[in-house]
Amino acid sequence: xxxVMLGAPGAGxxxxxxxxxxxxxxxxxxxxxxxxxxxxxxxxxxxxxKEYMDQGLLVPDELTCEIVADRIFMDxxxxxxxxxxxxxxxxxxxxxTKVLREAGQKVDFAINVDVPDENIVVRMSGRRACxxxxxxxxxxxxxxxxxxxxxxxxxxxxxxxxxxxxxVKKRLDVYHDATEPLIQFYKGLGVLYTVDGTKPMSEVFADxxxxxxx
Length: 214
Ligand code: AMP
What we know:
The chain has a domain at 2-116 and 190-213: Rossmann fold (3-Layer(aba) Sandwich). The chain contains 9 helices and 7 strands. It has helices at 13-24, 31-40, 44-53, 61-72, 90-102, 117-125, 165-179, 181-188, 201-213; strands spanning 2-6, 28-30, 81-84, 109-114, 127-129, 136-138, 192-196. A 5-stranded parallel β-sheet has the order 2-3-1-4-7, with helices on both faces. Strands 5-6 form a two-stranded antiparallel ribbon. The longest helix has 15 residues, at 165-179. The chain is globular. The relative contact order is 0.19. Adenosine monophosphate binds at residues 9, 31-32, 35, 52-53, 56-59, 64, 85-86, 88, 92, 162, 171.
């Protein structure tokens, strides 16, 4: 089962992807997480990615595509995987189609988590993250037990540079220009499924599970 998650940044696709990965026992591959891991560990890739991420821009395809191509052919991906944050533009979509085709494979489901822009801005500016263990919170929807402190490791929570209001607006522009056309792209491949991402998290999850199990 090879799944691609589509949707604006902040639509909740990361949360859904993690839940689906757990339910179906497949790896959750998030390019954003891969970049953040590299950033935290001060790798060359992390340093290069940072300048784009902090501005809400896409990291260039040369840096992104190869990482994904390496990851999706690892042993743990034999029964499938869920891609979260990739592809992010048509050229990445075409690249993925090509490397899969060369291996006699294809994307089985492209799940579009649909949320209007107005909801996105509110959601993202409330996000908080733990710089130490990576846990994520939302000041309204998933608040930590003690304000500003990570439940898991006790570190002080931060607002990621790319979740600040200015950057969120930029990321939405980038989403509409570069990423949204992938909806038509996957429709054309006959694997597009859209769910209403404004519903409560558990209902969105139930809707996606139904699509995958039907
Ligand atoms: P995310 O956590 O998926 O919202 O990603 C955070 C940031 O990482 C994005 O705003 C981009 O700067 C970068 N990024 C993640 N995935 C990609 C991708 N497939 N192509 C280019 N940049 C990406």
